[in-house]
């Protein structure tokens, strides 16, 4: 450790900002983690972050996209076993910061341990450095992350999640187990799905569900009725054709679903007659023994993909 | 600190040591101005060198001093240490009339004085030197871990910030109470 000291915060604010602006983006992000004041100073810089991607999985990843580079912040929490899910109240977080100038190259691996703050608090701080209009895309793998929270009453859990994550533009919820893929979802998993949907769906433009356990107080109809632009459903075996009629979305993709072709054909006929007027584009991917598409409305764009 | 061609130092403001006249531009004699810092040591600087400082340049333009008037009235910068002012004057002399290079090797090397230098340069509004100084400060933490950055830049933790804030509030409360008591005493 060097003996040199520089009372940075004794400088006028404009000078501090000027100094920070001469630093590389990853250095500025590291600086923002030092304290609330440091974080607020970084926020005032209005960094040119074009978008932010967050992957909430076993080891959460936050990627800040700048025009020519991306800063990747990986967070790892200490767990006794691989089976244990990552939770937002986990303490003792290991940080890995990388810079990536291309898809295949990551430089500057910097890592350190932090304790005294929970994973949720760190994510909240990292998310707060970008300006309010930055688009956020967040992917939750709820087989690896527990967002049932469990430490608060259910109504406060939603608020707790909203405080940590900013307004999310694109939400992807997946349920994919790396270690025990056959294991059925438990009650806590259903609760996690409900919490994420209740917390973020209102402000989202696009929602993607992949093998997500939906049940209890929440159904696909509830989700589809929200004013989404785009809804993508992959491997949602509980999807029924009646659900499609209730969807209030402009673009809908259903893939590897449980709907029979006969039911789909019934939907197309009614759609042509004017039911579901908001739906402009429907993409259906699946396996069918027999294909029969007739008289689609000309004004409606329809992409129909078939996997044999 | 060594004197440069255009600038020297002396202890008495009235009799600054004159430097040999510049060989360049013999037709138009260069005008000189005088500045002093906290230590009252006067530095003679050419108008060309002082162009770097927006503050002094503005003062010169507004005052319209003659050579004699300038000698008799050196610009006082009481908030700047003498050695810091010397560094600034040296830098201005070295970069007089030259385009400033992207990487400056003539920056002062004493990192302990960087804080005072940054403040002085900011006050004197020397844009290029300020940019270099800011880069120097940023370089201090290049490749360092958060804990090292915290130590080098003396950044308090959230807990320390909160404690300091509480302390300040307590002090302010006590002062306010003291003032109220004094006012009540006066009224009696």
From TrEMBL, chain A:
Pfam families linked: F-box, FBA_2
Residues of the F-box domain: 5-56
Entry-linked InterPro entries: F-box_dom, F-box_Sdz-33, Zygotic_Embryogenesis-Asso
Listed PANTHER family: CYCLIN-RELATED F-BOX FAMILY, F-BOX ASSOCIATED DOMAIN-CONTAINING PROTEIN-RELATED
Protein's recorded name: F-box domain-containing protein
Lineage of producing organism: Eukaryota, Metazoa, Ecdysozoa, Nematoda, Chromadorea
Gene name of this polypeptide: Cnig_chr_III.g11170
UniProtKB/TrEMBL annotation, chain B:
Comp. bias (Low complexity): 8-25, 178-188
UniProt keyword Ribonucleoprotein present: no
Domain SKP1 component POZ: from-to ranges: 38-96
Residue ranges with Basic and acidic residues bias: 165-177
GO BP terms: protein ubiquitination; ubiquitin-dependent protein catabolic process
SUPFAM superfamilies from the UniProt entry: POZ domain, Skp1 dimerisation domain-like
Keyword tags: Ubl conjugation pathway
Pfam families to which the protein is assigned, alphabetical: Skp1 (PF01466), Skp1_POZ (PF03931)
InterPro entries on file: SKP1 (IPR016897), SKP1-like (IPR001232), SKP1-like_dim_sf (IPR036296), SKP1/BTB/POZ_sf (IPR011333), Skp1_comp_dimer (IPR016072), Skp1_comp_POZ (IPR016073)
Ranges for region Disordered: 1-25, 160-188
Gene3D superfamilies (alphabetical): Potassium Channel Kv1.1, Chain A
Pathways per UniProt: Protein modification; protein ubiquitination
Family matches, as SMART domains: Skp1 (SM00512)
Highest taxon of the lineage: Eukaryota
UniProt keyword annotation of NAD present: no
Domain spans labelled SKP1 component dimerisation: 127-170
Record's function text: Probable essential component of SCF (SKP1-CUL1-F-box protein) E3 ubiquitin-protein ligase complexes, which mediate the ubiquitination and subsequent proteasomal degradation of target proteins. Regulates cell proliferation during embryonic and larval development.
Entry similarity comment: Belongs to the SKP1 family.
UniProt protein name: Skp1-related protein
Organism of origin: Caenorhabditis nigoni
Protein's gene: Cnig_chr_III.g8742
């Amino acid at each position: 450790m060097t003996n040199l000291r520089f009372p940075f915060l004794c400088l006028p604010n404009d000078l501090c900002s000027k100094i920070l602006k001469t630093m590389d983006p990853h250095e500025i992000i590291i600086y923002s983690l030092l304290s609330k004041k440091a974080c607020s100073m970084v926020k005032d810089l209005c960094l040119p972050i074009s978008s932010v991607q967050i992957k909430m999985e076993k080891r959460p990843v936050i990627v800040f996209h700048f025009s020519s580079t991306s800063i990747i912040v990986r967070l790892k929490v200490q767990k006794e076993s691989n089976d244990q899910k990552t939770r937002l109240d986990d303490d003792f977080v290991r940080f890995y910061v990388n810079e990536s100038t291309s898809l295949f190259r990551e430089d500057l691996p910097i890592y350190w341990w932090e304790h005294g703050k929970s994973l949720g608090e760190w994510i909240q701080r990292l998310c707060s450095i970008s300006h309010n209009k930055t688009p956020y895309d967040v992917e939750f793998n709820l087989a690896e992350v527990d967002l049932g929270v469990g430490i608060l009453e259910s109504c406060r859990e939603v608020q707790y999640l909203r405080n940590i994550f900013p307004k999310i533009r694109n939400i992807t919820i997946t349920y994919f187990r790396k270690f025990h893929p056959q294991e059925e979802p438990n009650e806590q998993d259903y609760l996690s799905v409900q919490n994420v949907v209740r917390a973020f769906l209102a402000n989202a433009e696009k929602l993607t569900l992949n093998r997500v356990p939906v049940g209890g107080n929440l159904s696909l109809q509830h989700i589809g009725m929200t004013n989404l632009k785009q809804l993508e459903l992959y491997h949602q075996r509980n999807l029924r054709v009646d659900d499609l009629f209730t969807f209030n979305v402009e673009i809908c993709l259903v893939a590897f679903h449980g709907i029979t072709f006969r039911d789909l054909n019934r939907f197309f006929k009614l759609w042509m007659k004017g039911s579901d007027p908001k739906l402009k584009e429907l993409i259906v991917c699946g396996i069918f023994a027999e294909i029969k598409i007739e008289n689609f409305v000309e004004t409606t764009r329809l992409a129909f993909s078939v996997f044999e | 600190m060594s004197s440069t061609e255009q600038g020297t130092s002396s202890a008495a403001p009235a009799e600054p040591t004159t430097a040999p006249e510049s060989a360049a531009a013999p037709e138009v004699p260069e005008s000189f101005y005088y500045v002093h810092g906290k230590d009252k040591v006067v530095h003679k600087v050419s108008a060309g060198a002082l162009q770097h400082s927006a503050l002094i340049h503005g003062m010169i333009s507004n005052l319209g001093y003659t050579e004699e008037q300038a000698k008799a009235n050196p610009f006082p910068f009481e908030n700047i240490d003498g050695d810091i002012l010397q560094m600034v004057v040296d830098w201005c002399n070295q970069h007089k009339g030259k385009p400033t290079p992207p990487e400056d090797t003539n920056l002062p090397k004493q990192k302990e004085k960087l804080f005072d230098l940054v403040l002085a340069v900011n006050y004197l509004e020397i844009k290029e030197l300020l940019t270099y100084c800011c880069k120097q400060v940023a370089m201090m933490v290049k490749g360092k871990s958060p804990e090292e950055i915290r130590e080098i830049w003396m950044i308090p933790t959230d807990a320390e910030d909160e404690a300091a804030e509480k302390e300040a509030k307590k002090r302010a409360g006590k002062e306010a109470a003291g003032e109220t008591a004094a006012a009540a005493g006066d009224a009696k």
